[in-house]
Amino acid sequence: TLYVASTETFVGKSATCAGLLQRAQRDGFRVGYMKPVSVSVTRTETSVHDEDAVFIREHFALPDPLERLAPVLVTQGVVEQILRGQSSDFARRLREAHLAVSRDRDLVVVEGANTWAEGSVVDLSADQVSDMLQAPVLLVTHYRSLLSLDAILAVQRYLGDRLLGVLLNEVETPKLDFVKTRVVPFLEQRGVPVFGAIPQ
Questions:
Q1: Facing residues of 37 across strands?
Q2: How many CA atoms lie within 13 A of 179 on its CB side?
Q3: What is the pLDDT of residues 131-158, one digit of tens each?
Q4: What pairing do the DSSP bridges indicate for beta strands 41-43 and 48-50?
Q5: How confident is the model at residue 25 (pLDDT cuts 50, 70, 90)?
Q6: If exposure means fewest CB atoms within 10 Å of the residue's CB, which of 54, 59, 101, 119 is most exposed?
Q7: CA-to-CA distance for 71 and 83, rounded, in angstroms?
Q8: Count of other CB atoms within 10 angstroms of residue 192
Q9: Residue 28: helix, strand or coil by DSSP?
Q10: DSSP state of 33
């Protein structure tokens, strides 16, 4: 199981997950996917679902039902239940879904929530889920400035050896040379492997 995390939204997590799944499938591995906690819930007349999970399931022809790929949907109704003191065992639901999705699979890519804190209301924030699954973490971050290093190092401080490394995404072209020659060596010197610096 590989947990793909971020500290903010719209950094390219879904695209990273799709790329990893495509490469693993091409190399002959049996793949699975999960988005354990979703607050980006889409409602239709017949269902409530997560669009990332729908896309990945269709694109990779995964046999798992959607409620297994996205087992915890944090809707307004769920939050109101929690505020009223009516709690569900979301952790158990997640563990059971993960067990089912990972059966007979070589690799399961787990797409994290939009931010590091998201999911805290159901006790399933990024750190809690990666802890529960004991999954190594790939951090995807949108590199804007040197301030981006704070979030990366904070995640490293929490995860320690479970942080596999970081993917610096959407680096503005004028900053690319600086990122490659200064930022990447700095992070790697601090024990954070950089798997790529992708131009905007």
A1: 72
A2: 26
A3: 999 999 999 999 999 999 999 999 999 8
A4: antiparallel
A5: very high
A6: 59
A7: 20
A8: 19
A9: coil
A10: E
